[in-house]
Design goal:
306 residues; 4-stranded parallel β-sheet
Length: 306
């Protein structure tokens, strides 16, 4: 994402607390890979630190905010709901308030396909009625959207919420399916396989997500309040995903079959009608190609033999 925005000529200040949800050294490696980009600087800190956030706005003249920070993960949120509410709701509010005070021209907020709940009528449209959240994580994303809309209505801040659908690709979190399954597959270890394999996901390649964020940021000023889906609008079952990885790595998976997980939904699938019409978002990377690009990165990182 940073590389995509830097390519547009933006100066970028990154803020992240390097949360130990997964190994901070992996996050530091990702930051180091961006250190040579012109106009990029990084600050280690927490989005809930109002004084720090305000100071960054003042000293760096921030006029656009891309808020991608969150306590991530559906399943862990069930175990620690208060932490998720603090980071994802309080943190979002802190950033919105700082942007309001600094009179920022635009604020782009990362939401999630989880806000659609356990729907069974895909594709999901931004105009669909609100759904019951299936996890504390989903509830915090719904709350973050509501706070963004409130700041627009009260203060005129231009806010765009982007609902990401199962983003994957290089530098992906190691607990996400594509990364986790690849590691276990190549190690000859069992892959946790929840349910009967029929759950479907709309996997979206990271470069397409980054393009959508950049387009939304360009469109945001004077657009008011907007919500857009960023997905691939094509679904893959859990069984099909494992099969694609088996083919890619020419390795047979060992499955540990488990019951459905609390908080999981049967399907995610994005309708792209509005986002295509309003900002020209059109994903170009299908799952097979995207998995291939992920595999190239995985090899480059030294995770597998050449």
């Amino acid at each position: 994402m940073v590389a995509r925005l830097a390519a547009d000529g933006r100066e970028i200040v990154g803020l992240d607390n390097l949360d130990p949800y997964y190994a901070p050294e992996l996050k530091r490696r990702n930051v180091a890979a961006l250190s040579g980009l012109p106009g990029f600087s990084f600050v280690e800190g927490d989005i809930r630190d109002a004084a720090l956030v305000r100071r960054l706005h003042e000293q760096d003249g921030v006029d656009e905010v891309v808020h991608l920070a969150a306590k991530a993960g559906v399943r862990p949120s069930i175990e620690s709901p208060a932490v998720y509410a603090d980071v994802n709701v309080t943190g979002t509010t802190t950033l919105l308030e700082a942007a309001r005070r600094a009179k920022c021209r635009s604020f782009v907020l990362a939401s999630s396909s989880s806000v659609y709940g356990a729907r069974s009528d895909p594709p999901f449209r931004e105009t669909d009625p609100p759904a019951a959240a299936m996890s504390p994580y989903a509830a915090t994303k719904q709350a973050a959207e509501t706070m963004g809309r409130t700041f627009h209505r009260l203060h005129g801040l231009d806010v765009t919420a982007l609902r990401f659908f199962n983003a994957y690709g290089p530098r992906q979190r190691p607990d996400m399916a594509v990364h986790k399954f690849t590691k276990l597959l190549l190690a000859g270890e069992e892959i946790p396989f929840y349910g009967d394999g029929s759950s479907r996901r709309d996997h979206t390649y990271v470069a397409d997500i980054a393009d959508g964020v950049a387009r939304a940021l360009d469109r945001c000023p004077s657009s008011g309040w907007r919500v857009y889906n960023l997905g691939n609008s094509a679904t893959t079952t859990l069984s099909e995903l494992v099969a694609r990885l088996e083919e890619l790595w020419e390795t047979k998976a060992r499955l540990r079959r488990l019951p459905d997980q609390p908080g999981d939904v049967p399907t995610t699938c994005a309708d792209l009608t509005i986002v295509r019409r309003e900002i020209g978002f059109a994903p170009t990377t299908g799952l097979v190609e995207g998995l291939g690009k992920f595999a190239e990165w995985y090899r480059r990182e030294g995770h597998t033999p050449s």
